[in-house]
Amino acid sequence: MRYEIRSGGEVSKVADGLIFAAAKAQDPLTVTAVVALGGDRHLCCDEIIVALDGAEIVGAATIAPKGESGADMPEIVGVFVMATHRRRGVGRELFVRAIERCRARGLVPLKATLITRMMRVLVKKLPADALRDVQIVDHSHMSPW
Fold first, then answer.
1. Class for domain 2-142, per CATH?
2. CB 98, CB 131: distance < 8 Å
3. What are the structural domain ranges in the chain?
């Protein structure tokens, strides 16, 4: 697995591509992709970290330097991994790399809102040091996933 940082117009292109791929694959968590990356949500993001399996983008984590609302603290807006690549550590790696990238850019403290139980489990398994400077907002109880 290879990880890259993309910025500018690539953010929307990658987000739209992942939503299309998830829908085409009839991924049961396509709704999560639409919530995490769809609509205008990714427009607040200036960087996206992608996971690549060969040339195929199989996951992404988005960074919004002013938060999702554009007037808040820096935020990791969405982490999404295609169903074919879940449970392999890709989401964890994307989340950790997004945190590290925010730190490197001076975007701390930062916020991460959890909207799935899978993300809650992932975060609980991370060492405390990995989450320093990160405010976790847990809304996973509202999700069927």
1. alpha beta
2. no
3. 2-142
